[in-house]
Structure formats: C-alpha cells, structure tokens
Amino acid sequence: MPQLTAPIPLALYMHIPWCVRKCPYCDFNSHEARGPVPEQAYVDALLADLEQDLPRVWGRRIVSIFIGGGTPSLFSAEALDRLLSGLRARLPLRPDLEITLEANPGTVERGRFAEFRAAGVNRLSIGVQSFDDEHLRRLGRIHDRREALAAAEEAHAAGLENFNLDLMFGLPGQTVAVALADIATALALQPAHLSYYQLTLEPNTAFHRSPPTLPDDDTVALIQEQAQAELARHGYQQYEVSAYARPGRCCRHNLNYWEFGDYLGIGAGAHGKLSDPASGRIHRLWKLKHPRPYLATAGTTAGIGGNVPIREAELPVEFLMNALRLVEGVPATLFAERTGLPLAALEPGLSRAREAGLLAKDPERLQASERGLRFLNDLLQEFMPSDRGE
Question: How far, in whole angstroms, is CA 163 from its chain's centroid?
Fold first, then answer.
C-alpha cells in the first residue's frame, strides 16, 4: 500500500465550457454558446460544486487557480469577481496566489483586461494560435491578426505583464518562414510566457473527420528547431516540452500538474486528482461533461461523473508521463513523495531507459535525455506494466 508522508500542493481548476464557435482542431469540452451565457447560474453551480468537494481538502491551501475553457473571457468581470470572492470565502489561499484566466482575442473589448485584473486575475493565457490571417481562417478562429495584436497590447495596458501567448505550429500549408514570422511577432509583444505546440489531429474533431494537408515531418522538425533557437536567443527558457518562459515566469499551475501535485476540478467536465494520506490512495474524479445536466446537478452526488482510485501498478507511468515532460526533470525523491511508492518501483524500467539513452544517467534526478524528450512515448513505454511480471 502506498505511504504518502509529505504534504502535496493543491491547485484549483475551474472550467467554463462555452465558446463563440467550436474550432475544427479542438477536442476540449467546449460548447458553442447559442444565446446568452448563463453566467450567474453557472457561478452558483461552480460554488456549489466546490462546497461539495471541500471535505476532501479541509485545511489545505490553494497554490494556484486556473480558469480554462471554452472561452472564460466570455464571462463578465462582475461574474468573475463574484466567483473569486466566493472562493476566498471558502478556501485558504496562498498569499502570492497565481490566478490565470484563458482569453480569446475575439472576445476582448477595450478595458476588459483591466476589469479582470481588478477582480483578482493576475495572469492571462491568450489563445492567439497564429498571427497569419489565412492560418487563423483555416483554424476556424473568430479573431484576426489585428485583434491578436490588440489583445496583447490590452494586457500590457491593464498592467497584466504576466501573460502567456498560445501559438501552434505545423499548421496546414505552413512553411518555416511563416512559422518563424509568428515567433517574431510574438517576441515583439513581449509576453512573459509562450506555449508553442504542434497541431495534432485529435479524434472527435472536424479536422480528424476531414484531415487538412499538414507539413511533412522534416518541415515540422525544422520549424521546431529554429523556433526553439530563436526563443532561447531572446531569453525564453524551454522548461517543458511545449512551454517557454522568461526567468521566474513559469506557469505555476501547470508546474503543479507536471510535478504530480493535487488539484480540485470544478465545472462541467472538470477533472481533479486528490491524494488521501490516511489511506495512501490517489483518486481521479470528474464532473458531468455537458453544461445542461451539470447546471442541474452541481453540488450533488449526481453531478459527479466518476471517482476512481489510480491503481498502484499505474502510478509509475502516471507520475512519469507528467514529470518527464519537464526539461530539467524532477528530483528522484519526488517520486516517493507524490506516489507513496519507493523509487525501486521504477526498476527495471530506469535501467532499460538509461541503457537506451532515453533517460539522463544522474541517479538523483528523473530526467529525460535530449533524445528522450524527442521520443517521449518510447521512454514511457519502458515503464508500462507488461507480461514481464512487473
């Protein structure tokens, strides 16, 4: 039985599921708003949902909050203020709490970010995806280049210097030159953080049903290599497979995920992970996915979509699929602290991965090698339960 002996940080994720239009590549739990968004009723539901979860986390302090979607910036500053005030009344919060709000440039009005900041938001994640109008059209985005630039400028004007830009590469018809033009534009806007990830064709999306023609693997590799070099030249450190930040500006909330911390998940389809030191169990739980039944049942057991313990045999891979995304990896001692299992539970996978050159040889750290970061699935495969009897 796992023995959890060290305190585990606790974050809070809140999901707002509505968006103006569903993008053809998106597999998130998002729903087109066909009329006014019921923001007041949804804030009530979120707070009722939270109250139901409170007994699971009594006395634990929240280290970060992330409001994701969908498009949370569809909500008014007044609704977010009421939501955050409700959280403060119910949960102990870290004094220097990071509160991130996802925003779509197409929903940003003049002065909106300043209002969000006054409500308590101190970090933004702006879903730009590209600064090229043709690529934005192909991606089904509701904004154009001009609105993307204006959103970043609005963040600066609101005093929200700690903002992230989401950018994608490997877009239909994208060349290396066009991809690097996106990077140059992003750098000129001086974000604190950049998420830069490759477009993938996920199941249950319009792009999966009708795939666009994407750049070949060599072009994608060249885009990634040259973009990484350009970001590094401008002082953005790659700290995770798809995340780059200025010094001191890593996303605390996402770091908690990657370091296998705990998190509450409230909202339609939100997922959480919670550890119970008394039993040694780590549970994953989630809420009903569709907004309508969620609104009708939030705060009751009927609103819980599932609550299952992570099997002991699954814990090593669950931990590593997060931790090994970090460029510097994690201290080897963190495995026992976050899973309750001894480091020996990772053998003989550690030996095989190091022998294959996929894992750094430092016994004090769990860290993918440069090759391991490029072939992360191969690295994780070394730790999958199999007929070896492990």
Answer: 14
H/E element holding 18?
Answer: strand 18-19
Task: Please state, as a whole number, how many other Cβ atoms lie within 10 Å of the Cβ of residue 89.
Answer: 8
Number of domains the chain contains: 2
| Distance set, CA 291 to CA 33, 41, 42, 268 (Å) | 11, 11, 9, 6
- Do 221 and 330 fall within a single domain? no
Residues 6+ apart with CB under 8 A from 217: none
- pLDDT tens per residue, range 167-203: 999 999 999 999 999 999 999 999 999 999 999 999 9
Token couple for 113: 């970010």
Token pair belonging to 389: 């009897």
Write out pLDDT tens, residues 238-294. 999 999 999 999 999 999 999 999 999 999 999 999 999 888 899 999 999 999 999
The token pair that represents 313 in the structure block:
């045999």
Contacts with 259 (C-beta within 8 Å, 6 or more apart), sequence order = 9, 322, 323, 326, 330, 334, 338
Q: Domain range holding 355?
A: 320-381
The two tokens of residue 387 are 């007929």
Within 10 angstroms of residue 343's Cβ, the number of other Cβ atoms is: 15
DSSP-derived pairing of the beta strands 262-267 and 10-16: parallel
Best CA proximity match to 146, nearest among 163, 170, 166, 128: 128
Per-residue tokens: 337: 């602290």
Cα–Cα separations (whole angstroms), residue 21 to 27, 31, 264, 360: 13, 8, 27, 44
- For residue 366, being part of any structural domain is answered with yes
The answer to whether 104 and 73 have CB atoms below 8 angstroms apart is yes
Whether residue 354 sits in one domain with residue 212:
no
Q: Are residues 251 and 328 in the same domain?
A: no
Q: Assign 330 to helix, strand or coil.
A: strand
Residue 239 identity: Y
Distance of CA 134 to the CA centre of its chain: 27
Residue 374 burial (10 A CB sphere; 0-12, 13-18, 19+): middle
Q: For residues 288 and 297, what is the distance between their CA atoms, to the nearest angstrom?
A: 9
Look at the chain and count its residues.
390
Residue with tokens 């030249």: 233
